[in-house]
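Q: I'm a student working through a structural biology exercise. My instructor gave each of us a protein and asked us to get a predicted structure, then write a short paragraph describing it. Mine is Radical SAM core domain-containing protein. I'm not confident about reading structure output yet, so if you can add a plain explanation after the tokens, that would really help. Here is the sequence I was given:
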Amino acid sequence: MNLLEMTFKEVSQLLYNGFGRGDYHAGALLREVIKRGNHNFSTAPEFERSQGMSLALVSDYELPDFTVVDQMEEDNTVKFVTRLHDGCSIESVIIPMKQYNTLCVSTQAGCRMGCRFCETARSGFKRNLQVHEITGQLFSARNTLGKKISNIVFMGMGEPFDNFDNLVRSIRVFNDQKGFDVAFRHMTVSTCGLVPGIRALAGLGLTQLSLAVSVHSAIDEVRSVLMPVNRRYPLNVLRAALADYPLHKRRYILVEYVLIKGVNDSQEAAAALVQYLVPLKVRVNLIAYNPGRDPDPEFQGVDDCSMNQFASWLEDSGLFVIKRWSKGQKLMAGCGQLSTRT
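A: Happy to help. First, here is the predicted structure for Radical SAM core domain-containing protein. I'll explain a few features afterward.
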């Protein structure tokens, strides 16, 4: 019984099938373990009066098979490293916002998408994360590090849609009100542009969930160099999937655009991006390129003046732009800097 992979209804059904109990004890079990981080749930009042069931559950209960082995902090941004049962390491980041904390969650150990500017891609692909290894990052942030987390962004290591089934399962476990209790509207899934994943997620009808898409260039030749996924799903195919994506009337698609000096920061690049995005309901996240441990000498980040200039070109054409100033860059915790080579 791994509670990091189960919803309230599933726990209740398990207790009913095994012991003739249900919602009352299921709620207590999730309260103790998920909300309070108390693995010794048998001491809770609900279980003290049911010792037979309590002993059976304790013997069947699986403790998380991962350990937080390191954590670093800079300007309230926290990166922590989790060692998994097979020795793989993953990184997660807690990002302070004005009124809440956001947890950047990894879905894979490494990544096989091969984006040239990304440190995670350079570290290579190890494996997909299991559901409890994904949800366990929130469990650790709250119960091991003691951080209050309100938002989840699937923007850590790996391509979420390359681990689709475990991603969706994790979203439902995160959302369960009796457990982690993170609303769909407070979760964002980010993709490099895997069109089948976008269409599969669209089919689930989770319209409150936010979708973020890495574009980084609206010129096919440039994007194919930066992101090999573009050779398989070029810009016109990606835009068709985004145009069909079902959005709640108050939601929009986040377009992520990493600015790289001399590569995709020109006025021509901005004009191409405007033309590409005009038919879509989007907001643009501009992010300065963050160099990795062994950065490509062809890539350099832009300065604040260039960031503001590019933003103004987009805004003058009617696009809504958010400028994301790097947080945690010195920790190697910025966008594109996470790695299995901790």
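A: Here are two points you could use in your paragraph. The CA atoms of residues 184 and 209 lie 5 Å apart. The longest strand covers residues 66-74. It's a good idea to check both against the output above yourself.
Q: Great, thank you!
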